[in-house]
Amino acid sequence: MILLTRNITSYSMDTKKLIEMLREKGFKVTPQRLAIYEKILANKEHPTVDQIYQEVQKKFPTLSLTTVYHTLHLLTKIELLQELRCNNGVSRYEPDKTPHINIICQNCGAISDYQSKNVENFLLQLKKELKTKLLGNHFEIQTICEKCRKQG
Amino acid sequence: MILLTRNITSYSMDTKKLIEMLREKGFKVTPQRLAIYEKILANKEHPTVDQIYQEVQKKFPTLSLTTVYHTLHLLTKIELLQELRCNNGVSRYEPDKTPHINIICQNCGAISDYQSKNVENFLLQLKKELKTKLLGNHFEIQTICEKCRKQG
DNA sequence: AAGTTAATTAATAATCATTATAGTATATTT
DNA sequence: AAATATACTATAATGATTATTAATTAACTT
Description:
homodimer
């Protein structure tokens, strides 16, 4: 597997950012890492680990699930991703975005985003109020989605 | 085990509420259920399932873990509790309370509560804005706590 | 107070997301 | 282009949670 690490001009802004951050911290830039990150950026549905695995496997048939887990932890560690723990102990991932709320169904695990000026202001205000540094640009709130509510 | 179900005057407000809700939905009022709920109300540390099991077992030595899981799911279903999925896929539980934020350390799983007038107003406002019915009176936000941050 | 129904217990096994291990491959440095 | 440190892969292990029994116990109804 050949990666032209010295010429990153063909990559997207986000991927370039990842490459720089990996280099900066002494981690290696591998095609698996880039592909996993790109897939999460492209997928707006807050994919699960397994979904990411399935999708990236199409491009790299030998990809192992362990690598996906390892990469997701690494990217979370360097704060490019946040892990969302939903129902059934299944993790989902999302990249940093504009301030929003993740409304998480406790039954099926579906996540819907909600944005508003109020949310944005509140998050900014909160970051000022709190001494503790927060991760990401979102907070989470629980619901039972319409679909699940109908089914009882 | 004798429970004077017709005289609930000696119970706390919260326990009375539980008893009423169980009756209303046709579930039986058992001392285990009351004890588990009371323990969660008394423990402000958002206990894990195993911690609840350990503590309530002191009062009911024959208590089984299965009962604890079953009861917690039941109380969550009737919306007296919310399940918090933290790190390592371990569930913690908390009762409905005044509006607050659970600031959850993604490393060690520790949860610290945060309350303010802003939080309260925002949550009220949010419930008006959203069509979806929310569970509980809190939302969750991620951090790495001071202790973990120091340890790297 | 007896009958009915549901809950609890116990012991075990199954599930399934996640983590650990160890050998092989590859990115990066020189 | 070789050296070396890290990453990747495959497999096995872990561990919280669920499921399955079946027997016992206890709550609730009339």
